[in-house]
């Protein structure tokens, strides 16, 4: 049993302090040395119970593979979580449905989770995703065509953002001229997200995003097209598989999850390669290493710091700690992915790593639905960038690279490069 005090919001070892910055990984290393399951008093998740950070691979996996014991659905532990989220105001009762307020696959466990996920899982199989490769390639080439002549670009704005948003919006049928606004909303939502703490600005963006999605569905109802939203509407209209609330939650989830994380990885991954020139040169010399490099970039500094919170449905022991019913556990993916018990030289970026069972896409029933899509996008994006711009270099001093730090992710604001 560990004997340390819990980590408070102001503690040096709170990895979510806004000034933790790129030092987050050394904090994770110290936390792992302290234990696999660490009490925290940083406000996270809507619970009256104790909160815990889970730092090591074995315990993170144990939580994620056991949704009966550690559920995403806080309504299952009635009495221990507030029935109305503490951040919800009265005005929210009229708010449109999004994956935050409604029932989406990411916020429910079985049997609803299986039903909801099955409705879209066919659209995300590795085989189907491979069939999208030529269109992903075309998008990547068109984006680089626009900047090739000028000899410089902002990787974030010119490549990492537009590539995934165009891919997912093509799949879903979001009109081209509306994508820039959708991206503004989802970036604002992802920057402002805490676990249980929602600023008014985030609420406003969620509301606008939800309103937009409801209108989009109405338009598609009148004029169905060959896209995933129209297919989901047809399922909803068949009756008993998908309610209106579930339909809207599903669409906002797919749009949001379908590009924010991938954008983040394409930009951060480019910076990581520039930070480790010997790895970058190895990749340029052998593009066949791209898919293994992509997995290593995910392990080394993947987009998701943590999964969503899980709630203990019973008293249990995890990593030697007593966990009580209603406690919230936060699986720290970025820490587990550097676990020295599992990865040799875990603090080293090695694009040729032989065994790489990272958790950047989560684990268990909620593991990332879009992983096969992200893998195709990453493979195409890095291959194309390095083939067409082999002299890629940072255009600003490394210390001037600008980050946005949020609770569940860290992303680059800009990444100016020359080539
Ligand atoms: C779930 C990461 C790209 C859709 C997740 C989870 C993680 C994750 C960690 C698990 C969350 C949890 O357990 O609480 C990533 C990363 C990506 C990526 C690192 C890119 C590099 C995508 C894409 C899509 C997508 C392209 C496409 C729609 C989803 C969905 C879920 C999910 C729908 C919920 C699955 C469920 O609850 O069954 N993702 N994701 N993601 N992701 Fe991704």
TrEMBL record:
Keywords: Heme, Iron, Metal-binding, Monooxygenase, Oxidoreductase. The keyword Metal-binding applies. It comes from the Bacteria. InterPro entries: Cyt_P450, Cyt_P450_B, Cyt_P450_CS, Cyt_P450_sf. Pfam families: p450. Coiled coil: none annotated. The keyword Hydrolase does not apply. Belongs to the cytochrome P450 family. This is Cytochrome P450. It comes from Paenibacillus nicotianae. The lineage of its organism: Bacteria, Bacillati, Bacillota, Bacilli, Bacillales.
């Amino acid at each position: 049993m560990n004997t340390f005090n819990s980590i408070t919001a102001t503690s040096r070892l709170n990895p979510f302090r806004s000034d933790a910055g790129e030092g987050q990984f050394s904090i994770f290393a110290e936390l792992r040395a302290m234990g696999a399951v660490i009490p925290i008093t940083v406000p996270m998740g809507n619970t009256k119970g104790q909160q815990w950070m889970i730092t090591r691979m074995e315990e993170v996996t144990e939580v994620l593979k056991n949704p009966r014991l550690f559920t995403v659905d806080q309504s299952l532990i009635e009495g221990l979580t507030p029935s109305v989220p503490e951040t919800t105001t009265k005005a929210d009762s009229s708010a449109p449905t999004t994956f935050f307020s409604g029932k989406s696959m990411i916020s429910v466990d079985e049997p609803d989770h299986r039903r909801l996920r099955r409705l879209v899982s066919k659209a995300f199989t590795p085989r189907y995703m491979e069939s999208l490769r030529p269109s992903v390639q075309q998008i990547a080439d068109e984006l680089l065509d626009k900047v090739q002549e000028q000899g410089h670009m902002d990787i974030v704005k010119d490549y990492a953002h537009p590539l995934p948003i165009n891919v997912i919006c093509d799949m879903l049928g979001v009109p081209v001229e509306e994508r820039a606004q959708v991206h503004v909303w989802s970036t604002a939502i992802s920057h402002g997200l805490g676990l249980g703490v929602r600023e008014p600005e985030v609420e406003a963006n969620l509301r606008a995003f939800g309103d937009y999605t409801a209108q989009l569905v109405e338009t598609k109802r009148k004029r169905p097209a060959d896209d995933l939203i129209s297919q989901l509407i047809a399922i909803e209209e068949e009756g008993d598989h998908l309610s209106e609330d579930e339909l809207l939650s599903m669409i906002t989830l797919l749009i949001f999850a379908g590009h924010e994380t991938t954008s983040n990885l394409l930009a951060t991954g480019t910076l990581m390669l520039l930070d480790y020139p010997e790895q970058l040169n190895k990749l340029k010399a052998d593009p066949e290493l791209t898919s293994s490099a992509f997995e290593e970039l995910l392990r080394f500094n993947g987009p998701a710091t943590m999964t969503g919170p899980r709630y203990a449905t019973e008293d249990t022991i995890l990593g030697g700690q007593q966990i009580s019913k209603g406690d919230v556990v936060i699986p720290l993916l970025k820490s587990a992915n550097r676990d020295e018990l599992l990865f040799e030289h875990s603090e080293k970026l090695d694009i040729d790593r032989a065994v790489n069972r990272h958790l950047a896409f989560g684990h268990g029933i909620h593991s990332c639905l879009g992983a096969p899509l992200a893998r195709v996008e990453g493979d195409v994006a890095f291959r194309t960038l390095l083939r067409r711009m082999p002299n890629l270099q940072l255009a600003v001093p490394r210390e001037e690279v600008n980050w946005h730090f949020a609770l569940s992710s860290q992303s680059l604001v800009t990444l100016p490069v020359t080539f």
